[in-house]
Amino acid sequence: MDxxxxxxxxxxxxxxxxxxxxKNITLNIPDRKITAIIGPSGCGKTTLLKSFNRLxxxxxxxxxxxxxxxxxxxxxxxxxEVTHIRKKMGLLLQKPYPLPMSIYDNVAYGPRIHxxxxxxxxxxxxxxFLKKASLWDEVKERINQxxxxxSVGQQQRLCLARGxxxxxxxxxxxxxxxxxxxxxxxxxxxxxVELKQDYTIVIVTHILRQARRMADYVVFLYLGxxxxxxxxxxxxxHPKQALTREYIKGLIS
Amino acid sequence: MKVxxxxxxxxxxxxxxxMLVLTLAAVALIFFMVAxxxxxxxxxxxxxxxxxLFFSSRWRPFRGEFGFLSFIMGTVWVTGVAVLIAVxxxxxxxxxxxxxxxxxxxxxxxxxxxxxAGIPSVVFGVWGMLVVVPFIKDVVAPFAGVxxxxxSILAGGIVLAIMIFPVIIHVSLEIFRAVPQEVREAxxxxxxxxxxxxxxxxxxxxxxxxxxxxxxxxxxxFGETMAVLMVVGNVxxxxxxxxxxxxxxxxxxxxxxxxxxxxxxxxxxxxxxxxILLLVVLLFNALSKMILIRVQRSIR
Lengths: 253, 300
Hints:
- The complex is a heterodimer of chains A (253) and B (300).
- With 253 residues, chain A is α/β, with parallel strands linked by helices.
- Chain A has 2 domains: 1-88 and 168-253, Rossmann fold, CATH 3.40.50.300; 98-167, no CATH class.
- Chain A has 10 helices and 10 strands.
- A 6-stranded mixed beta sheet of chain A has the order 6-7-8-3-9-10, with helices on both faces. In chain A, strands 2-1-4-5 form a 4-stranded antiparallel beta sheet, covered by helices on one side.
- In chain A, strand 4 and strand 5 (73-74) form a beta hairpin.
- In chain A, helix 3 (103-113) packs parallel to helix 6 and helix 4 (119-132) packs across helix 6.
- Chain A starts with a strand and ends in a 5-residue tail after the last helix.
- With 300 residues, chain B is an all-alpha fold.
- Chain B contains 11 helices and 2 strands.
- In chain B, helix 3 runs parallel beside helix 6 (153-178), helix 6 (153-178) crosses helix 8 (194-223) and helix 10 packs across helix 11 (266-299).
- The interface between A and B is medium-sized, with 27 and 21 residues.
């Protein structure tokens, strides 16, 4: 299979204080595929994900070196303007965190931040992305109610719509189904599979079955080191490293 | 089998009972104070209608006229000015400490601000007389084109504002810190700047809590006596501008209790003033506590 690279990580090192969380990671993430970052908890999965949109900037005492290229721009360069990088990437967290406002305003939040004021255009955007996150039919009657009234599963899809509304190229998910019931998880997974035609998707997951179901490409981290990465089929069926084999068999967790 | 009570068991039971009684006594004190003040203010309440007491500004104790309006307005003006000055400054300070400062700065500045709360109020009063009052007399009043001795509502408001800084900053900082980091991340992740995130998300989430902090500040300001009394002028007239002097309720009580007791009904009138103050402060405190409890439940 041929992959085009979308995110290129080169010699990425991340320290929190004296502790090194990511050790010299070099890796290419393919365009318009679902990449799953797997590994036991504490292995640096979330840190790797958050260095893509530089949310680790706000962690105190963090030191980063190396390069992360997105569309040939080094996003770790201190001169890079961080809001335009983040605009390129939608983010889904472990638990849905709707903003303290209505369903409509949640989706319109990003576009408004980036200067769209026209009510008609905003209406259009809200509808389009709520549909894309397959939430529209459930909420179209009560679009002006507070987002906190939705169920957790609906909230997570709302957060997806909110991220999509700024028209990113990449979707980042940090264990995006871990707080959801099986049915809601399935809906999110389905939506992701539909979305990968237009977006590069990177998810962190500790659920191996989820990675098997969704992923085209798999990255396996262990204690901050990149052990193995490659097409999902290869990793799951012919892992080259002993550690990967053990993890996939469920021997280490 | 019944075990005979050992001496240490008896001691344990006694200790817990004594502490219970002491705790109850502290709680009961408030009720006794309210009841006592009410009892003492009954003569004045019986002598004239409430409307006369609260909405008349005629204060002629020798003729038996006790209209509290000037004093109530004095308290309201001074408190209002203090809150107007304190709220924006405190909000910006706590936003800076919560959202921009790193934890080292925060851990240094927080106790320093809390120390402000421990400075005796008479010290603030002296500072007000030496610095604020002359400043208003020589700079602010001429600039506004009026004459003022400097002893004014503005002076009282400025001194009072500084005295309520710690409580407002402390409480609102706590509220801002209670807003989950992930909510900020959700906003940052769509490309919002930090300021946009604060304005649209953090502030909105924290608003009820900040309101509670302000109410707590108001109740503190309402009852503050010494520092205000020293700089506010103490003239029993309804004020018309912030450069007028005023005579807040606590100052009325502190200046006159024990002095004018030979005048009939005077002590009863002062007790009524004290009762009003106590009830207003209790009400505001309870209100802010209620909001805070609800906020803490809903914010996470």
